[in-house]
Structures are given as structure tokens and as C-alpha cells.
Amino acid sequence: MVLTVDIGNTKTELGLWQGRTLVGAARAPTAEHRDWGAWAARVVVDAGGGVIEGIATASVVPTAVARWADAAHRLHTRIRVFEGTNIPGVIVKLPHPERVGPDRLVNVLGALEWSPGPLISVDLGTATTFDVLDSSGAFIGGAIAPGAGTALQALVSHTARLPQVRLEAPSSAIGRDTVSAMQSGAVLGYAGLVDGLVARIRAELGVHAYCVATGGLVERFAPLCTSFDRVDSALTLRGLRRAWELTT
Known about the structure:
By secondary structure, the chain is α/β, with parallel strands linked by helices. The protein folds into 2 domains: 2-81, 2-Layer Sandwich (Nucleotidyltransferase, domain 5), CATH 3.30.420; 91-234, 2-Layer Sandwich (Nucleotidyltransferase, domain 5). 34% of the residues lie in helices and 26% in strands. The chain has 7 helices and 11 strands. The strands form 2 sheets. A 6-stranded mixed β-sheet has the order 6-9-8-7-10-11, with helices on both faces. The protein has a 5-stranded mixed β-sheet with strand order 3-2-1-4-5, sandwiched between helices. α2 links the parallel β4 (54-59) and β5. α1 (36-46) crosses α2 (65-74), α3 crosses α7 and α4 packs across α5. It is globular and about 60 Å long. The two termini are 13 Å apart.
């Protein structure tokens, strides 16, 4: 079995794979202080037990990688940390490939399991990333936007009278009070941002690029967005599993 670890700004997600089947998963706040090795071991036990062949991880939080190196040592297994310069299966056609977030490349690698390209992966989290493979399968860039929750929190913190509101869709686009008006902009408006950017990317490519959506907010926005061809909440973990397979 292979343990994949997606270390994000807000949450860390684990995925335990038996071949190409995801048999166990868990998530926890990245900033939480815990015994990460013991947590991983519990995921294995909950999945029915077995031996961890290795740990594949990518992180946008460099300081969090060391804790997983320690966890691998305690679990008596090896760890492979994937970064922008060592992710197999993806050719980066950019001037500075080392500056590309590893999560972005891992996402498109995972999306290749669903389509050979051209394709777009959309990851809705603390930030929302749009990552593009052209028809040759090369990574050619994308877009980065503040996540919906991040944008809403910024709005509240930079205004004197706007209240905290839940990130959920209102019953109509026309808000009848401050709360529903904010939710219309933060949720329905954000869905428009996502669909609008995907449409612009497809127009620049000149084809209907296959679009795979993932991320912590994907279940909330998938019903509101019309541009997604597939929703895969395990996309990053899938990409890490593929990266492990290609380097083993």
C-alpha cells in the first residue's frame, strides 16, 4: 500500500491506496500538533491493516515536510517528496518550472487519469488554482485566485459594518438583506468567476479542454458551476499515487 499525503495551507489529507483503489482517507488541520505517524497508522488499521510501501507527499507548507519524514522513519518506510522539479509525467513549458507549486502539477497529473488532455484542473481551497495542460500534455500555466472563503473573510475584515456570514448559496442572486447579498456575491458570484475563467482558458486553447474540479470547497461549488466535466475530491491524492508509480 502507498500512503499519499497532501499538505495544504489549511488541511492535510491522507489517502491510502491499494493499487489504484483508495481504501482509506482522513484529514486534519495542517497547523495541528499531533503524532502524525500514529495518525497514519490508524488510517491503515481502519482500512483493514497492511504494510505501507512508502509515503508520497507534496506540500505548499515547507515546514510541514519534516514531520512526515519523521513519521516515515517511525513507520519504517520510505518517503518521496514531490516538488516542481521532480514530478514525473508532466512536462513544464514555463521559464521557471521550479517556481510552480507542486500541488498544481500533482493535480494535473491526477487529472491525466481521466483525460489525456488538453485539460484544466480547478482546485477550490484557501486559494483557487486553475492549471492547464495543452494538447501535447505539457503544463503551460494557469491562474490563481483567492479562495471563496479567503475572499469573504477579507471582505469582512476590511469593512466596518459587514457581518460574518456562512459561505452558502442564498435562495436568489438578488439579496433581500445584507447577509443574503453578501452570500450572493461570495458564493454565486464566485461560481461565476470559476466558470468565467474556465471559459476564457478554453477559448485561448481553442478547444473544449476537459475540466476536473477538486479541493475542500468543491462539493459546495460543483452544483453551482457549469464548467466541470468531473468532480474528483481525491484528485491531488490520485496525482501523488501516480507520481509514486512513475518513480518506482
